[in-house]
Amino acid sequence: MKLKDTTELSIKRLFARDPISMEGQRCFCIVVFLVHTAIGAGEGSTNQPSTEHVESNELTVSFPPLEDLYTSTLEKHFATENNTVVTSQTGSTALLPCVIRNIGDGIVSWIRRKDYHLLTVGLTTYSSDQRFQAIHLQHSEDWTLKVRFVQSRDAGIYECQVSSHPPTSIFLHLDVVEARAQISGPTEKYLKPGSTLRLQCSVVQTTEAPAFVFWYHNSRMINYDAERGINVTTDTEQRLSDLLIPAASVSHAGNYTCVPNNAVPASIYVHIFNGENPAAMQSSSPSYIHLSILHSLYTTVVLYAIR
């Protein structure tokens, strides 16, 4: 006789000898059902492998210990590389970055290394030079030193320090350059009437594109003098400005100056020939006038001496 048949017979004899309530019978039936399920699984386990076991092996996932996660994520460190170089031009705004991960309760200070001058502590500026300011947004990891209206004397090494025991620091180097305009070619040009005058001005040693570039003929701004045959085109992103006069005349002789808003200007002098003789140039060049006066004085002195 099978095990489950024996169990059923025992249950019938138990009910006949000691009747129980309806609720008790329900609970007892549930227990019997579970016993039957277990017995059936046990009888069939010899020939059929367990599918659940295989699936559970495929879905197994392991995690690193919590202490390893905390050690790797909560350790304070600088995200900005040490000895980072920041280049800025005179008159512009320099931004020296200092990104710190997991700073906790640490306080950030900026120090100018050449004279060990304390510039800022937290968001407070300690320098009497109000051009220096610490920039930090709440909950961010950035503690940037902002230097407005950069001057050549601001160049040097700056220290970003975090209070700890001992303090930890990185160093950044501020390189200051002076942007300047540069007109291609020699500082003086010689043209015949009717020739094309083309001048190109580039802004060099600049970290920021100019907002505008003005051209001056002597003391007159000529960017919009199209009626005088002058065409000016400027590409601020490329830091280039071109001046074109298709047919230069005697009135176009003189000094031309390229003036970017954020760079040192550059000048060139244009001479216009009157005919084929360079000595008869129609020009108001200071150097040419000076030489003419000297030549006239020399001639007068010689003629006086002959007499």
TrEMBL record:
**What processes in GO biological process is this protein linked to?**
synapse organization
* Occurrences of domain Ig-like (ranges): 64-164, 166-269
For this record, the Gene Ontology CC terms, alphabetical, are: neuron projection membrane
Q: Which InterPro entries match?
A: Ig-like_dom, Ig-like_dom_sf, Ig-like_fold, Ig_sub, Ig_sub2, Ig_V-set, Immunoglobulin_dom, Zig-8
Pfam families from the entry? ig (PF00047), V-set (PF07686)
Where are the coiled-coil regions? none
Which PROSITE patterns does this one have? IG_LIKE
- PANTHER family, per the entry: DEFECTIVE PROBOSCIS EXTENSION RESPONSE 13, ISOFORM B, DEFECTIVE PROBOSCIS EXTENSION RESPONSE DPR -RELATED
Q: What is this protein called?
A: Ig-like domain-containing protein
Q: Which organism is it from?
A: Pieris brassicae
